[in-house]
């Protein structure tokens, strides 16, 4: 821990559920965000022009207001920024939410207490992309947000905690609108699971039982 007894956290986050988790972490007395890595541009998979993300200014503002270094990574070539940062800094946690790229072992193995990813799908059944869509297409009555250890492959690490949420599929809405509705409804689980997991992984140091 640092001199203020706060555990240093490096966060790789995007989208609203990533931003809400940043805000929750910043409001605690136990954790210090020492660097934020995010994506500035939309992925080509749904934006051929790769425009600047609608929420990028929100991340910029958060970082500026809280005096936290902000880095952007939008290609595999730029991933060296993260590797260089990890090689030069010590940190207790590495947190990933909506991160596009595989995280190399030399980065996630640096985290003293753990490197975790939050995934909006029930693992291992709904690993990979579009987990909510897959669950709804399979008529699942509930979806899950999972917190798991980061490994060298996507969504393969041991699951630490899960939160379930009723699908409540609305037949009067399209599949796309149901997906967007659920994305908003489950945003609250990301900060909750993050704090719960951090406390769990540091219970010997924080006297959590």
Regions with pLDDT < 50 over 5+ consecutive residues? 205-209
What number is the mean pLDDT? 93
Strand order of the largest sheet: 3-2-1-4-5-6-7
Structural shape:
globular
Count of folded domains? 1
Biggest beta-sheet profile? 7 strands, mixed
The portion of residues assigned to helices is 25-40%
Enumerate how many helices there are, as a single number. 8
CATH fold description: Rossmann fold
Order of helices and strands: EHEHEHEHEHEEHHH
CATH architecture: 3-Layer(aba) Sandwich
For the record, the CATH class is Alpha Beta
Structural class: alpha/beta
Task: Kindly report how far apart the N and C termini lie.
Answer: 20 Å
Q: Count the beta strands.
A: 7
Q: Roughly what fraction of the amino acids lie in strands?
A: 15-25%
Please compute the radius of gyration using only Cα atoms.
17 Å
